[in-house]
């Protein structure tokens, strides 16, 4: 199946970049995919999945979790503050921390719940109007703000503009992460995950190349 091909390509990209085997986590992005396709990928042993919407994730993952052990869920889409609690209770990681109001909400809920998923701060590397994320020049201050709130910030995330060379954006994200002492880099999708791995991605978010086109 396509999953094996993607795993092989990740292994080759790790080796090609002189990185340790297994240093990149594959997040299989299952948003808007039929359950049969998701289940086939679960049967093939994949356990780390990404969803854009909390609502959709809450609708489909509790049932899969009853059937399969060890599922790890990552929320990778924009997160409304009124969905934050549900996201924290459902997911092991959130990749879309992108504004102070969300950060303070997550911090308050982490106190209440007593735990917090791993967090990635989304950076709008292309400075696109319509895209979520803090601007590159605001990233250092926002990382500091999140750390000041005791949030478990593991790394940074970006989605490069569709019409630009992704490598430039991956390199920029890696640079911002390095100067902030952040080890995690969530970057690379179906069309560019090998480039992202060459530039240091620790988490690649691959959807259609594994599951096929979304419905
Ligand atoms: C949908 C999505 C992906 C996966 O995209 P593909 O091109 O299908 O691999 C990755 N990251 C985010 C944030 C997404 O919304």
Q: What report would you give on this structure?
A:
The protein is α/β, with parallel strands linked by helices and 215 residues long. It has one domain (2-210): TIM Barrel, CATH 3.20.20.10. It is built from 9 helices and 8 strands. It has helices spanning 2-16, 35-43, 54-67, 84-90, 100-113, 136-148, 166-179, 193-198, 208-211; strands at residues 25-29, 48-51, 72-75, 93-97, 118-122, 153-157, 184-186, 203-206. Strands 7-6-5-4-3-2-1-8 form an 8-stranded parallel beta sheet. Helix 2 (35-43) links the parallel strand 1 (25-29) and strand 2 (48-51). Helix 4 (84-90) packs across helix 5. The radius of gyration is 16 Å and the shape is globular. The mean pLDDT is 98. The structure holds pyridoxal-5'-phosphate (PLP).
List the helices and strands and how they pair.
Elements: H1 2-16, E1 25-29, H2 35-43, E2 48-51, H3 54-67, E3 72-75, H4 84-90, E4 93-97, H5 100-113, E5 118-122, H6 136-148, E6 153-157, H7 166-179, E7 184-186, H8 193-198, E8 203-206, H9 208-211
Parallel strand pairs: 1-2, 1-8, 2-3, 3-4, 4-5, 5-6, 6-7
Helix pairs in contact: 4-5
GO molecular function: pyridoxal phosphate binding
Family: Belongs to the pyridoxal phosphate-binding protein YggS/PROSC family.
Pfam families: Ala_racemase_N
């Amino acid at each position: 199946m396509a999953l094996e091909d993607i795993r092989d390509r990740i292994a080759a990209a790790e080796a090609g970049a002189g990185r340790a085997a297994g240093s990149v986590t594959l997040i299989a992005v299952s948003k808007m995919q039929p359950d049969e396709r998701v289940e086939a990928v679960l049967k093939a042993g994949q356990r780390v999945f990404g969803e854009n919407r909390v609502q959709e994730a809450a609708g489909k993952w509790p049932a899969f979790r009853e059937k399969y052990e060890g599922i790890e869920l990552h929320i990778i889409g924009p997160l409304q503050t009124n969905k934050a609690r549900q996201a924290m209770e459902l997911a092991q990681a959130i990749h879309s921390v992108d504004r102070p109001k969300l950060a303070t909400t997550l911090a308050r809920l982490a106190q209440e719940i007593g735990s917090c998923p791993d967090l990635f701060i989304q950076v709008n590397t292309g400075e696109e109007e319509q895209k979520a994320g803090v601007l590159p020049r605001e990233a250092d201050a926002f990382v500091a703000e999140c750390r000041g709130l005791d949030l478990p910030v593991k790394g940074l995330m970006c989605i490069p503009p569709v019409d630009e060379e992704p490598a430039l954006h991956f390199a920029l994200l890696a640079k911002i992460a390095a100067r902030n002492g952040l080890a995690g880099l969530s970057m690379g999708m179906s069309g560019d995950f090998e480039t992202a791995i060459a530039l240091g991605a620790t988490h690649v978010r691959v959807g259609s190349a594994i599951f096929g086109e979304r419905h």
